[in-house]
Amino acid sequence: MNPAILEIGPLAIPVWAIVLGVGMISYLNSAAILVYAERRIAAFIQNRVGPNRVGPFGLLQPLADVLKLLLKEDVTPTHGYKKLHAIAPMIPVITALLSVAVIPFGAGLYVTDINAAVLYLLAVASLGVYGVTLAGWASNSKYSLLGGLRAAAQMISYELPMGMAVASVILMTGSLSLVDIAESQSMWWNFFVNPLGAVIFIICAFAESNRTPFDLVEAEQELVGGFHTEYSSMKFGMFFLAEYMHVFIGSILITTFFFGSYHLPFADLYIPADMNIWLKGILDVSVFTLKVCFWCFVFIWVRWTIPRFKYNQVMKLGWARLLPLSIINFMVIATIMYFTN
Amino acid sequence: MLEIDWFLGISAIMFSIGIIGVLIRRNAVVIFMCVELMLNAVNLTLVSFSSFHGNIDGQIFVFFALAVAAAEAVVGLAIIIAIFRNNLTVDVTEINLLRW
Amino acid sequence: MIVYLFILLAVLAIGSALAMVINKNVVNSALFLVINMVSLAGIYLLLNAQFLAVIQILVYAGAIMVLFLFVIMLLNVEDEEKLFDKFRVKYFLAFILGAAVVGQIFYSIAGVTDMLPEISSNMAEIGTVEEAGDVLYTKYLLPFEMTAILLTAAVVGALMVAQYKIKKG
Q: How many CB pairs under 8 A join A and C?
């Protein structure tokens, strides 16, 4: 079933469990680490120092943030819809956690290899829309409702070019399994053969995470705080957590689909095939982690450098630029593949 | 183990819940959702027969049913919005004028 | 184990369907329908139809129901206050009709029981994306292209209907 079980014999279950455990812990903690990283990098970009008082180099700042969130008063709008108001923040977190199930962290190091993994990822991502929409509606506030509807429209619009960009990857790999997609990039990363698809996918990943330049959803000058205007305390904390998890999952997906997953560039040329399994595992996981960290950095970098779009510009970019471009990209790749095979 | 009767049973119950919903509800959007429920019940029947026969044709039919359901939802909701614009209600008992 | 899973999903599906019909709040109804569709996707997984299970969530829960929610929120539909407050002959007839349909289907199912005792053993290979795509692009190519035309027509029609402006005077 799982290659890690077959290859390592008696140590099989521990390896699988260790991968799962490390994956989940790093995944859950990614939000905390990203909050710290975001604040420090933002400060660096703006020529400030950033949080540096709590613990060495301010490393315990996320803990202080969470403590602050926990101790705040939990306010529910009087005329809001209380049950949905409580349920809505959980949905984005749950969908973000669900998506880790199909991601390979290294050769044979994954939780599960389902046949329709890419469709699964898209399906789980599309369920995340409910969180923001319901939060906007349940708050019984005009700003929240507008923010929620904007979020839903934006996420649905950008799912289409994203799907087409992923479809061009699937076309080249010939499989919907993420493990196969990762394995097929051992020589040529998909970025080298399909750069346009990669660019479209990265833009869509930025838009899906609802951060600047695409943070119309919570545009402070127009909408106060968008869909989480009426949220406080740990309910707000959940949205905060979900946002950083989406940054993290976006980085993971960019890495897996286009930047060679756990492979170094042109790895076939110099990585021996009969490498020690433990050494290979450590190499794979560290390469994967480094790439993901790089893309998380790019997410933060972009957020603090580029100003926000107008809403009509976001919609125009999605529907009139990215979607036709991604379809043309798909067709060109299909034609080239038809004539070369 | 699982038997096909159980799946057909669920499908039958869901289908008749859909029928009851269409008959008793007065909100056009909810009636529409009940129709979707009935479509889902039929899809379940097709998938279960497809699985028990070991033949994929039933699943392909469900795939087409999904596409048709999507098209139907789009047009139907557009009609509901158009009705709401003119009557300011989606209560089917109050929409009794065939002109605007 | 698998039987318990089935019972759980079945209870969830039927319970959410019932809750959808009897709930006064429209947004709640829509959310119960989402739960119903997700549990149906689980039942599809029990039937070894992985492709359809994922497509069910992607298309129904992820797209169609979001559209429904969108419309409900935009129209700001008020609750039906008078759903079950007084007895009506209409409700009674509706329940009779529903019960009659269930009875009829159960009767016909009972007549042909034990014809197909088990899920076909080659279903694990058949329900995959590859198989579905294989059949879809060869045997059912024409219907597949027709769905593309249907969806295009639906989008154009929806825009025509929803954006129609009444001429003044």
A: 65
- Which residue is it, tokens 């039937």? C47
Mean pLDDT of all residues in B89-99: 72
Is C28 in the same domain as C104? yes
Q: Which residues in chain A show pLDDT less than 50?
A: 1-11
Q: Do C71 and B81 touch (CB under 8 A)?
A: yes
Say yes or no: C133 and C162 in one domain. no
Bigger pLDDT: B71 vs A81 = B71
Residue B9 lies in a domain: yes
- By residue count, chain C amounts to 169
Contact C57 A81 (CB under 8 A): no
Nearest to C70 among A122, A152, A176 (CB): A152
- Using the Cβ of C143 and the Cβ atoms of chain B, whether some distance falls under 8 Å is answered with yes
The per-residue pLDDT for C169 is 52
What tokens were used for A255?
A: 């890495």
Residue B62 domain flag: yes
Cα B58 to Cα C19: distance, rounded to the nearest angstrom: 29
Cβ contact, residue pair A123, C69, below 8 Å: no
**pLDDT above 90 for C36:** yes
Per-residue pLDDT for C127 more than 80?
no
| Complex ipTM > 0.90 | no
Does residue B83 sit at the C interface (CB-CB below 8 Å)? no
- Give the range of the structural domain holding residue A303, as residue numbers without chain letter: 76-339
Phi and psi at residue B90, to the nearest 5°: -120, 20
Sign of the Cα pseudo-torsion (A315, A319, A321, A323, in order): positive
Q: Is residue B99 part of a domain?
A: no
Rounded to the nearest 10°, the torsion over CA C45, C48, C49, C53 is 10
pLDDT band for position C85 (cuts 50, 70, 90): low
